[in-house]
Amino acid sequence: MILKRSDDFSTAIATIFMKFSGLWIAANRVERLYRSITLVYSFCGIFFIAWLVTREVYYTRNALSECLFNVSSFLSMTMALFKLLILLPRRKDFLHLILYLKRKFLHSNYDFYEGAILDTCKRNSVFFVCIFTGFCHVTVMSYMLSPIVVNIGRNESDRILPFTIRTDLPLTTTPYYEITFILQALSLYQTGVCYLCFDNFLFIMTLQVATQFRILQYRLENMKSVKNQEKHSALFDAGSSDCDADKYYDAFKTYVRQHQALIAYCEKLENVFSFFSLGQVLLFSMLICLDGYLTLATDAHASRRLIFVSHTIAIIAQLFMYTYSSDCLIQESSNVASAMYAAPWFRLPMSKYGRILRKDLTLVMIRSRVPCSLSGYGFFTVSLETYTKVLSTAFSYFTLLRQRSTITL
To answer: In Å, what is the CA distance from 409 to each residue of 63, 247, 294, 296?
Structure first.
């Protein structure tokens, strides 16, 4: 039984936010115009919020909690801008990876067992993408709602905005306050979209290619003739002939080409996201540390605590998504060698094709011993070990910061 697969929910969500960011495929002139306008809007929104937060870091430098609040916000805005600037020059390669994902991984023919493997991958993608996207939205909404909660019972002259603007203009009065609030809210939401959309697709693509390695293992372990793939029975028995070896070798070459295509896809993924990965991992520890400290700050308002609780959960989910998918890629690409050895190659006669296949099989096993992976611009390999190291570093920073603040107080 051959099944035709379709897009999953996680890919649909990631696609929507990618269109909002301005980095997507334009099919005609109208869509190209829309994409350009959206991209300019994304840059303007991020620069506007980053400028406001940067000024506040300077003005609140003598107040520890306020300064750390602004530093944490600044790092988050910087990360969104960093992602956009890194992927913009690599837009064509990035979109090519997405198109390949849709055409070759999601829209392909699989048997029942392969479909079950892909469905498991899709369920994991939906779960993690929804968790990360949901808490990112909670963080953005908390930034917007926090001043509204604080403004309850205050006079018009005492109202605050999500981000302070130090100016002589009467921004606390109507309608200037409402106009400024909407501008900040729109810019903040666009920044949040740029923060999460690229990570969602990176996670989906990495987990999907790891799943394709798992499907390749299944096909190698149950290798059949290309012409007889519908027959779920072993190709060879005690009476195997050289003709059977020829068919077996044709099937083997098909799977080797699939293996080469997956390796090439991983290399392109590494080329596009290596510097992207380095910047993220370097900032994760600082953000987790600052968010944890601000969550436990005694002078923090309840609405502000919600910002950092949701942001901390989003960052931890983001870090786990990133390291888990890369670790799956390492494990599954390495397991191809074991699957190759478990294939029924030993049933082949020592004929021409039998000897050629044994030689080529050895080469594939040697290549599989070098796993595919993502790295931080070549400085480190991303895996679940990276996850534990980042959390350990963040906890160390958090302890030092708490001790420093206690001494100051």
So the answer is: 12, 78, 15, 15
